[in-house]
Specification:
Largest sheet: none
Number of strands: 0
Structural class: mainly alpha
Strand content: under 5%
Shape: globular
Low-confidence stretches: none
Distance between the termini: 18 Å
Number of helices: 5
Radius of gyration: 18 Å
Amino acid sequence: MISQEKEALKSSFMSYIDSHELCKDNQNILEILPDLLTLQNEKGTIYGRSWCKHGDISAFFQIERKFDRIHNIMEKAMKEGTEILHSEKSATPTETFLDTVVDLGLYALMWVGFIRENHPEEYEKFLKSNQLNKVI
């Protein structure tokens, strides 16, 4: 990423932080975002952008796969008790419940970015309809 682009991102975040009272959820998002971005960057180095290789269909199937895993874990938790969500009982050999939730969130955000890149008119309509008024 070019230094100018990084400066623009920093400026955007600082402007948001400086001009908004942060609710607890926004504060949490801002605090975990560097960790999530680091994880996504590491995974992106390994997998590239295979999650969107076939456009929206690829993105959908990645999200569906994660949602299915969460659904299965939640069905088990409804039978055995929700305390298993944050224990080894909810884990697969390679992924915990939290890993799955994080992956689902990252795929959803990356899909939004994909839409922004490939369908800017749709993203602009979204901004306007939510009164975000940012022109891309």
